[in-house]
Amino acid sequence: MTKAQIKTHKIGVVSHSKKKLKKKIALIAHDAKKVDMVMLVNNHKDILQSYEIIATGATGEMIHKKTGLDVKQMLGGPNGGDLQIGGLVASGDIDLVIFLRDPLTAQPHEPDISALLRVCDVHNIPLVTNLASAKYLLKGFCKVATV
């Protein structure tokens, strides 16, 4: 293993990273935002089909059924799915997180949501939490990936 393949994290954990074949995008949507997420994915299907999509339970199921894209499903958000995605972010396995949150509804798993947002900040992973930002970032993410 070469020095270039060994990554030392700020917290002192060393991981031996291998080149990823596909960039990975995590998609999460609260219940009131699931239709928006499916519309976003349908409108950007040409971009998203070249990425590995990882999503929380019901969001992943809905995206797969409505778009036909392959989706790796985690648990539902309230059952630990947000934390599973946070773990992937922390281990360097996620390149972008799109989390369409419902800011007007209290969530029983709010601590998990906060942890996911924090881990994206700690590991400098792009995170968007609304539809306008998601559209903008997907277009830019596609351009960066092809350069």
Task: Give a verbal description of the structure.
It is a single chain. This protein has 147 residues and is of the alpha/beta class. The protein has a single domain (21-146), classed as Methylglyoxal synthase-like domain (Rossmann fold, 3-Layer(aba) Sandwich). Helix content is 44%, strand content 18%. It has six helices and seven strands, in the order βββααβαβαβαβα. The chain has helices at residues 34-43, 45-48, 57-67, 81-90, 110-122, 131-146, and strands at 6-8, 14-16, 24-29, 52-55, 71-73, 96-100, 127-128. A five-stranded parallel sheet has the order 5-4-3-6-7, sandwiched between helices. The protein has a two-stranded antiparallel sheet with strand order 1-2. Strand 6, helix 5 and strand 7 form a beta-alpha-beta unit. Helix 1 crosses helix 3 (57-67) and helix 4 (81-90) packs parallel to helix 5 (110-122). It is globular. Mean pLDDT is 87; it is low at 1-14.
What does the overall shape look like? globular
Spatial gap, N to C terminus:
27 Å
Low-confidence runs: 1-14
> Major sheet: size, sense and barrel closure?
5 strands, parallel
% residues in beta strands: 15-25%
* Structural category: alpha/beta
Question: What percentage of residues falls in helices of 4 or more residues?
Answer: 40-55%
Q: Strand order within the widest sheet?
A: 5-4-3-6-7
Total beta-strand segments = 7
Counting DSSP H or I runs of 4 or more residues, the number of helices is 6
- The CATH homologous superfamily is termed Methylglyoxal synthase-like domain
**CATH third-level topology:** Rossmann fold
Name of the top-level CATH class: Alpha Beta
Level-2 CATH architecture: 3-Layer(aba) Sandwich
Oligomeric form:
single chain
Quickly count the domains. Answer: 1
The Rg value, from CA coordinates, equals: 15 Å
What is the H/E string?
EEEHHEHEHEHEH
Average pLDDT, all residues: 87
